[in-house]
Amino acid sequence: MKLYSYFRSSAAYRVRIALNLKGIAADYVPVHLVKPEPLPAYRDAVNPQGLVPAIEAGEDGLIAQSLAIIEYLEEKQPEPPLLPSGLAERAYVRSAALLVACDIHPLANLRVLRYLKRELGQEQATIDAWYRHWVEDGLARLEAFVAGSGRSGAFLHGDAPTMADCCLVPQLFNARRLACDLSGFPTLVEIDARCARLEAFQRAHPDVQPDAE
Amino acid sequence: MKLYSYFRSSAAYRVRIALNLKGIAADYVPVHLVKPEPLPAYRDAVNPQGLVPAIEAGEDGLIAQSLAIIEYLEEKQPEPPLLPSGLAERAYVRSAALLVACDIHPLANLRVLRYLKRELGQEQATIDAWYRHWVEDGLARLEAFVAGSGRSGAFLHGDAPTMADCCLVPQLFNARRLACDLSGFPTLVEIDARCARLEAFQRAHPDVQPDAE
Questions:
Q1: Which of A42, A57, A80 lies at the terminal end of a domain, its last residue?
Q2: Residues B60 and B101 placed together within one structural domain of the fold
């Protein structure tokens, strides 16, 4: 298996965690998202969606979109599970993962911040405020959702990491990089700290990837 | 079952299609997204994530996030399927759905356009250009992904509608409302037209919802 990744991509970080939790080895293929050349070449030759992550999964071919990849890994190799077994519990985990993937991350990623700067000519302070607005707003929703669910434990669901934790940890890593105020999210911060003690999360961290700068 | 919806919400529209395709009846509960009062009350009393859609699914409780709802419906009532059976095919369908749900829609929804207007003081023409930029960019990726996949047929996957078509049709409805140029996406436009002939899609259309204006 190959993993197309960029060390700082939040979505690629999710998949790195999932691969490590499953114990699946993948060859790391870096795609530099900041330099101008690599992305168009990758889009033409590898992934028409043109974003990372993607995996090359043998006879199953190329799979793009972090949550589609994680669902694929779950179906391909069910153990250890990244989704619980009950229908309501599975919906809860997917809902938490999608809150990060649909309501927070898309508004705070590199291509959007660049558009604000280049096309709309916004100052860095305005861009930073944009970032913090959407990340803090989304994390407040996630904190309320998790804390009110009665389903969290050591991790977002119960006492083993799931697809939802694969999304939470990269989002909090990014939030800290841009100095978001996390004081209102004690449940999320505590779960994130517990994840950080696991080797699967440590080996997925941006700082230890082959293309880390 | 109850469906919390807003007639014009693209994400709620996805779930309305899925419910109709499955033949599952749901009581329609409108949540007005434009007036100032309903959303905070809904967030406090019903859904801590604070967005539509959500379903109230009997003993399985409240489920938020359109794609988590559709996955839940698929697991609860597998027929007719909204995901194909093969692992690679399932990944393809989820990947197309997530491209819409993560890479297009979040940048073009009401709360984001409002922030551009109110907090960043942007002119309507700039906001329209923002909308069209992200929607047309994302649809170009989706067109290339689908057309190059060898997996599309009458619908995005083969000859029966899936979760991916549930996402495509609302996105194209919205794109037309804001006068996006769809001429570069012949595969998507053709599939959308085919969906529009099915009663399940017709009954989910914004114009025929109880809260349509």
A1: A80
A2: no
Q: Chain B interface, mutation test: which of A1, A71, A149, most B Cβ atoms within 10 Å?
A: A71
Predicted-complex ipTM score = 0.98
> Closest by alpha carbon to B148, among A156, A109, A48?
A48
- Whether the CB-CB separation of B145 and A48 falls below 8 Å is answered with yes
Percent of chain B with pLDDT over 90: 97
Note the pLDDT tens digit of each residue in B4-50: 999 999 999 999 999 999 999 999 999 999 898 999 999 999 999 99
Distance from CA of A196 to the nearest CA of B (A): 26
CB contact under 8 A, B88 and A122: no
Residues of A in contact with B65 (CB under 8 A): 94-95, 98-99, 102
Inter-chain contacts counted by CB atoms under 8 A, chains A and B: 136
Question: Two tokens at B138?
Answer: 């994302």
Which residues of chain B neighbour A68 with C-beta distances below 8 Å?
A: 91, 94-95, 98
Mean pLDDT over each residue of chain B, to the nearest integer: 97
Q: How far apart are CA B202 and CA B135, in angstroms?
A: 23
Give the model confidence (pLDDT) of A132-176 as tens digits.
999 999 999 999 999 999 999 999 999 999 999 999 999 999 999
Among residues A86, A186, A213, A145, the alpha carbon closest in space to that of B54 is found at A145
**Domain end point (choices A16, A46, A80):** A80
Containing B104, the helix (H) or strand (E) segment is none
Strand partners, A27: A2
Same domain, B141 and B191: yes
**Can you name the residues that pair with B29 across neighbouring β-strands?**
B4
Judged by DSSP in three states, B56 sits in strand
Taking the CA of residue A176 and the nearest CA in chain B, the distance in Å comes to 22
CA distance B109 to chain A (A): 10
